[in-house]
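Dear support,

I submitted the protein below through the web form. The confirmation email said the job was done, but the results page showed an empty box. After a refresh the structure appeared. I'm attaching both so you can tell me whether what I see now is the final result or a partial one.
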Amino acid sequence: MDNRSQFSSGRQSDSLEATRSLEGTNQRPTRRRFLQTVAVAGAGVGATGLGSARDRSDGGYGNGFPPTGCTEWSTPVRLGNGTARTFTTVTPSGRPKYHGLYVERSALEGLPTAADLEAASGSRYSDKYGPDGLALPIHHRWSQEFFVPFPETAATPYTFLGLNWNPNGHPPVWSAPHFDIHFHTLPMAAVDTITGPAAPTYELPAEYVPTGYARSPAVDERVITDMGEHMVDPTVPEMNGGTFTNTLIWGACDPDDSGTAELTFVEPMLTREFLRGHTGIDRRSIAQPETYARAGTYPTAYTVRDVPSADAIAVTIEAFESFEGDE
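What the results page shows now:
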């Protein structure tokens, strides 16, 4: 397999110099256009066989977070020795509060190895929309994949979560076992058609690139199967010889084949060891573009929360603001 770096020019031993030359690094002063009062309906996720139910009494999941009475849950999927599920929380006025992934700590154990996934590919793991996910090579490595809808999506453009367990990590510098947690704005069916690694066939306007982020110089591998194009902050530790634990990726694609791409997912990448050892609340800002292609309500922070009373971890996007768009 070709394990060329996605975000370096092939000289990982000199990662700092490589990151300085990343194409499209957006260092403009932030000039975001946003409205605090815009309300935009999100796209539906379609029929997937995964239902949701409003949580009025924790249902064995909340235990203090997320708040009861205003949270809806997806059907859980089996992950490792436990389960994972998505949830959406809105305020009493209907404003978005959280989209999140709720993972039992037991799910961090008993996860399949790369050899397990390769052996099961095309058989046991045959349905992204079902409880077993799909084993397939992504970023040149075996990955267990789940597509799980967000319930109650009308308040934001976010439609579903793409969850990937990567037992051997993936290039260029994220080699530790980790989870890719994609918060998508497109319908599942649209993301399902994305194939790669491939070169983009579109333009990505500079004003859509989040401040401080960069496109990969490995043009032929910018577009990744079931995801899209990935952009990275070149100042993160692992891009400069440090240790990878918790990184935020921004993603883009051209959803309507117009020749112009837009931001379509935001993705925390978290190592299993980080999640195993995490306590308390780790809240980080989400870099923003100068403007979005479409008006909508977008997150400005993401948080990893320990939920000790439930022996679980919640990963959320939050601090939503309503932005004007180019359309």
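Response: this is the final, complete result; the empty box was a page-load delay. The chain is about 5% helix and 35% strand.
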